[in-house]
């Protein structure tokens, strides 16, 4: 492992994050909207809203608020949520596992299935099966995920009763231990499939076109001439095709929050996507800033892992 | 409203005990014990302290853990709750409450008058927007002369008090839990201790709140179910699917398009109510910015009123679930609602005549053109902007369509609530808008703010029209000091007659909520926050 390179990359993280903090803070305060209105409800008098504003420090000048915020974050304190009245780190942390579970399941599903289907389609050439695979993948990509989710609910949950409609667990019969695991997986199936269906197409198409191109190159011809079985030939070619695919998967992983919002609302999945939406509507600045920070870190981390995966996949790439 | 002789009190107490013991009046069969009720709520409450917020999310999820001094019956009238009786003294300046004996907090600590005094002084009057805004300036003090007596002293006669003491308006929280802490960040907000029919078990953020039957509840025999789960399902149509799939038993709100299908299904029961934990008795109201030259002219406002076909709003937007507003105060507050007022009828020809009369002339297609309109340059097109929450887009579309038909152009500006409020009430940057003005349990709480001249901005959801009428101000001030209900009714009627003439607003439709539940369950009090206090379900 090129440890010097890794150190240098990690050293870049800090200034990037600091810059993002300031930028996020400014963007969020430039956007119109007033948190005390969401918080105070609609029946307060002017004194009440002023009281709330003072309580949350929103009456201070913006540069002062920014300074306080950055200082606190550097000391590891993300602040207190206006809405929840608890530490932002706790509010985000209790929602993170659900989203990670959903998004990583969907990512693995869509990556594995995408590579598999792409390879299959390439191998089949321009036959009707290939066309069908292509069309299905495209349809999955073009369909809005919330609509696909609703249709899946009608067809597979309400229609047949195979899957639950909402949530991560059964409200009536809470389980523990192994039963809990099975319960969660049962609830996870539909949202993960719908999210994966949405992301499947890009990987499938990328693998298919890449493979078609690679299968026409000299080294493949040479391999075939040597009498290598077709499966092995595909594996060789696939390794070269994987580089752009890894980039796409990596960027998906970094954008995990955006993909999850709609799916989490439709399936009442208790994750960060819903927290993001409700915090945005309530202008819960501390929680929003915390989530932006998390998302930024997610992108940075995903990029780093992608770069390292490159080096591992392609021996020609060397990081100094 | 003086409650004099002890016999009346005794009857009241007996009545409360009897009605509690014998189960809900709406249930058709004998109550069954046990089981778990699963209710869907639309958003994660964040915390479970209803005394520090008016947020509907927190109140829907937490009121069953608490009680008010008083409850409310189906018509919104006060019932004994933590207080078993009360007396109104000195013409409505002093209210004396006798507390129920033997009530305990969920942790076993006895509930006393000191809890009530603490809750009002340290929490409600600081953090509960409606309680603070309505009585904050008028309350001289809350006294607890002994453990079972609470006395409210006001600086002048104060009429609405008995209507704002339920768990929605004034839930009582425990002094021994909150004293000396910041009520907004006290960890008990996520691990609450109340006196209510259910005790707190767990709160899985984003997923559910689990409650268990409070065996020591002061209403004997209640509640019937052993457990209650508040399931957080943000999408209303998914809530319906969950109900159909048997995953939940109760929904707070059945949206219009789903009503036909669900109501005709024998597996479910439905009931309407104007009560909502976030705001009750709401009227979708169009406001006219009276600071704007075009809308300052009464005849233009009259023309708008005549151009609007309000039954179309009821049928096309609410699918019939509600009422056309026939007075400025909701019919859900029957004693204050002025029945039989003459409201502008839908009449396009009359609207066109009024606009012509002002000088807004029809010249070809599109909006009318100013020809001699006072305060408006000749040649100006008659066009107003119309602000609405994104959720109220259908109101905007109907307004645009119906006003367009008489030559009034409408530019729609959808704004989410956090932006809408400062734009309308602070910047006053709008011509017209639609707001769901919730009248609340008493006109003092939800109606006065719309019309009194002291309520023109910057606080949100106050007097959007910037209506200023010394006569109306004086009538409101008198009504708030008048304790006799008949007199108050007459004062509110006069107010309504005046504002229907002057049209600072136009009242479109009264909205109601349709609650729906599995037919195997009954006993829901859909008109109160303690909706599941007497619920039972057959298995």
What characteristics describe this protein?
heterodimer; A: 320 residues; mainly alpha; globular; B: 539 residues; alpha+beta; 7-stranded mixed sheet; 6-stranded mixed sheet; 17 helices; 22% strand; disordered N terminus
Question: Could you explain how this protein is built, in words?
Answer:
The complex is a heterodimer of chains A (320) and B (539). Chain A has 320 residues and is mostly helical. Chain A is 77% helix and 0% strand. The radius of gyration of chain A is 24 Å and the shape is globular. Chain A starts with a helix and ends in a 7-residue tail after the last helix. The mean pLDDT of chain A is 86. Chain B is an alpha+beta fold and 539 residues long. Chain B contains 17 helices and 23 strands. In chain B, α3 (113-127) crosses α4 (129-135), α9 packs antiparallel against α11 and α16 (470-481) packs antiparallel against α17 (485-502).
Assign a percent range to the helix content of chain A: over 70%
Mean pLDDT of chain A: 86
Envelope shape of chain A: globular
What is the tally of helical segments of chain B?
Answer: 17
Biggest interface, which chains?
A: A-B, 57 and 60 residues
Multimeric organization = heterodimer
Percent strand of chain A equals under 5%
Structural class of chain A: mainly alpha
Would you report the number of β strands of chain B? 23
* Count of runs of 4 or more consecutive helical residues of chain A: 13
Give the total of beta strands of chain A: 0
Distance between the termini of chain B: 45 Å
| pLDDT < 50 runs, ≥5 residues of chain A | none
Terminal CA distance of chain A: 11 Å
Helix content of chain B: 25-40%
* Principal-axis shape of chain B: globular
Question: Rg of chain B from C-alpha positions?
Answer: 24 Å
If you compute it from the alpha carbons, what radius of gyration of chain A comes out, rounded to the nearest whole angstrom? 24 Å
What's the mean pLDDT score of chain B?
90
Task: Compose a concise summary of this entry.
With 320 residues, chain A is mainly α.
């Amino acid at each position: 492992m090129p440890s010097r390179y890794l150190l240098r990359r990690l050293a870049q993280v800090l200034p990037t994050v600091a810059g993002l903090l300031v930028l996020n803070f400014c963007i969020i305060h430039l956007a119109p909207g007033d948190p005390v209105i969401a918080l105070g409800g609609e029946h307060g008098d002017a004194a009440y809203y002023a009281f709330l504003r003072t309580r949350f420090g929103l009456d201070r000048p913006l540069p002062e608020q920014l300074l306080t915020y950055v200082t606190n974050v550097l000391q590891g304190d993300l602040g207190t949520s206006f809405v929840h009245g608890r530490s932002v780190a706790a509010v985000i942390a209790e929602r993170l596992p659900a989203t990670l579970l959903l998004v990583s399941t969907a990512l693995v599903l869509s990556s594995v299935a995408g590579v598999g289907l792409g390879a299959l389609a390439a191998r089949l050439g321009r036959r009707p099966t290939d066309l069908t695979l292509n069309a299905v993948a495209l349809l999955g990509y073009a369909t809005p995920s919330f609509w696909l989710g609703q249709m899946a609910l009608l067809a597979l949950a309400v229609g047949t009763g195979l899957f639950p409609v909402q949530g991560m667990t059964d409200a009536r019969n809470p389980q523990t231990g192994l039963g809990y695991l099975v319960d969660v997986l049962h609830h996870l199936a539909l949202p993960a499939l719908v999210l994966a269906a949405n992301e499947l197409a890009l990987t499938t198409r990328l693998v298919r076109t890449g493979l078609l191109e690679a299968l026409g190159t000299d080294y493949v011809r040479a391999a075939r001439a040597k009498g290598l079985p077709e499966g092995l030939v595909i594996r060789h070619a696939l390794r070269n095709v994987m580089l752009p695919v890894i980039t796409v998967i990596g960027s998906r992983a970094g954008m995990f929050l955006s993909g999850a919002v709609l799916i989490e609302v439709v399936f009442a999945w208790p994750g960060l996507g819903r927290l993001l939406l409700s915090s945005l509507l309530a202008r819960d600045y501390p929680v929003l800033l915390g989530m932006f920070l998390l998302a930024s870190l997610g992108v940075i981390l995903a990029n780093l892992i992608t770069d390292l995966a490159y080096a591992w996949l392609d021996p020609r790439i060397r990081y100094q | 409203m003086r409650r004099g002789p002890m016999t009346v009190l005794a009857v009241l107490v007996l009545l409360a005990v009897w009605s509690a013991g014998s189960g809900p009046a709406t249930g058709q069969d004998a109550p069954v014990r046990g089981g778990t009720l699963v209710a869907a709520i639309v958003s994660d409450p964040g915390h479970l302290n209803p005394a520090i917020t008016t947020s509907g999310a927190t109140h829907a999820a937490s009121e069953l853990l608490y009680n008010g001094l008083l409850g409310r019956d189906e018509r919104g009238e006060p019932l004994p709750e933590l207080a078993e009786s009360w007396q109104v003294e000195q013409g409505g300046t002093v209210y004396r409450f006798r507390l129920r004996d033997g009530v305990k907090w969920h942790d076993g600590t006895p509930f006393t008058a000191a809890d009530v005094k603490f809750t009002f002084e340290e929490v409600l009057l600081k953090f509960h927007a409606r309680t603070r805004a309505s009585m904050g300036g008028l309350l001289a003090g809350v006294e607890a002369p002994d453990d079972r007596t609470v006395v409210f002293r006001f600086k002048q006669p104060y009429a609405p008090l008995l209507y704002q003491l339920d768990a929605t308006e004034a839930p009582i929280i425990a002094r021994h839990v909150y004293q000396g802490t910041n009520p907004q960040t006290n960890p008990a907000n996520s691990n609450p201790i109340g006196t209510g029919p259910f005790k707190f078990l767990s709160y899985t953020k984003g997923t559910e709140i689990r409650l268990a039957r409070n065996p020591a509840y002061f209403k004997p025999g209640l509640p019937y179910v052993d457990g209650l789960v508040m399931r957080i399902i943000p999408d209303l149509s998914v809530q319906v699917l969950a109900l159909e799939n048997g995953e939940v038993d109760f929904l707070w709100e059945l949206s219009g398009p789903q009503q036909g299908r669900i109501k005709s299904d024998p597996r479910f029961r439905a009931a309407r109510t104007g009560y909502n934990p976030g705001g009750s008795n709401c009227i979708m109201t169009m406001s006219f910015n009276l600071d704007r030259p075009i809308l300052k002219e009464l005849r233009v406002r009259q023309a708008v009123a005549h151009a609007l076909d309000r039954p179309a709003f009821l049928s096309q937007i609410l699918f019939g679930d509600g009422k056309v507003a026939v007075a400025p105060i909701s019919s859900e507050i029957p004693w204050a609602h002025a029945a039989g007022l003459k409201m502008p009828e839908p009449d396009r020809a009359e609207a066109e005549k009024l606009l012509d009369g002002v000088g807004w002339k029809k010249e070809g297609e599109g909006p009318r053109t100013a020809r001699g309109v006072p305060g408006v340059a000749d040649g100006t097109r008659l066009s107003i902007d119309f602000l609405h929450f994104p959720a109220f887009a259908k109101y905007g579309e109907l307004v645009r369509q119906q006003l367009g038909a008489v030559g009034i152009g409408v530019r729609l500006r959808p704004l989410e609530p956090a932006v809408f409020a400062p734009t309308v009430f602070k910047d006053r940057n709008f011509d017209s808008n639609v707001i769901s003005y919730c009248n609340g349990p008493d006109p003092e709480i939800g109606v006065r703010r719309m019309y009194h001249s002291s309520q023109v901005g910057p606080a949100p959801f106050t007097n959007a029209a910037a209506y200023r009428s010394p006569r109306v101000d004086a009538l409101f001030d008198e009504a708030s000091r008048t304790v006799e209900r008949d007199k108050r009714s007459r004062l509110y009627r006069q107010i309504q007659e005046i504002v229907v003439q002057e049209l600072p607003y136009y009242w479109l439709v009264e909205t109601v909520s349709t609650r729906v539940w599995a037919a195997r369950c009954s006993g829901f009090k859909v008109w109160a926050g303690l909706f599941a206090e007497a619920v039972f379900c057959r298995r």
